[in-house]
Specification:
374 residues; mainly beta; Trefoil (Acidic Fibroblast Growth Factor, subunit A); 5-stranded antiparallel sheet; 3% helix
Length: 374
Amino acid sequence: MKRFFTLLLTALVTLSVSAQFSDGYYRLQCKETGRYLTVHNDYVNKDAAKRTGQVELQSLETVKDFDKVVNDPGGVIYLKKTSKGYVIEGQNFTTAGHNFYLQFTEKDGAYRVWTTVTYDGAEYTRYLRDYEDDYGKSYITTDADKSTNWHWYVTPISDADKQYFGLKGDVKAGGKYYTAFFASFGIKLGSGMKAYAVNTMTKETTTLEDIGSTVPGFMPVVIECAGEKASDNKVTPLHDYDLYTGSNYLEGEYYCYIVTTPSGRERRDNPAWNAVDYDPDTMRLLGEANDKLCFITATDVKYVPANRAYLYVLEGSAEILPTDGTTGIKGVKGVKVQQEAAKGRYTLQGVRLPDNIEPQKGIYIEDGKLVLKK
């Protein structure tokens, strides 16, 4: 069973001199567990604080491997200093919106991150702590255990090894790698990369417009990558940027937060649930067809992926919408996104054809790609 983890705020009483950080983008990594803090939701359980003095921020999780956070916008944390303390910003979420301010105290090469809460007339100190959750999702709260996992490395995001933020080229078309991207912060692209808006869209096709090397925050885009790996596509997070004033039909979601029971049953009635259903009739995801970059109908996607630009299309649009202005293809079913393609030749209805028989004129799927036989 895959393990997820919980962040906790734990009570302590001994404080020392607080650290000072410049406003900027950082990664927070627990010294004891090696797990990274990420923002994956914007839900805060305020009722728990009223009842017990606990602070439950179910927006924050921890992730073990750097490879899982290297291209995750949720792991890009903006620390902002205010007169009340520091706030965490990320994924269009801010702790200041919930009157939650943090202090940083240096300890043994790392930091204890703490805040104060008032309950029933008394003030309590709470420390950020990484805690393993047996129920499959993680969140920040308080508990009585104050013995482990409370020291945090606070590292500015840079081009250095295991400190950078990069994008993975997960769609290959025409010999190039692409990805769909959406975040609340802007990015400065690295060498060999380009960013595109979808500036026109009809029921049959789309076209892309090069917007330059800077992507504004809150803007969904298609990224042409320099390579397949995140290390090939390092980008610099930006807090200040110029807005894009052209047309862009792309959409994006910050979260895909699914709440389940220990047995795996989905809990849509849970207030922490934060996911958008994928509708194959009105949504298209970035993909490839016949070695062309397209927006396609996906059949293997249940929810709109977080931080991935997508198209909300007109009713009756083609299942495959090219990005080069050529006519799209209707009546194609069963197109999968980012899945290993089935080998062989198939009809558009999914019927496999014999390898030793040349098909008649028409459109077929060969090794996962659309092919037109003339």
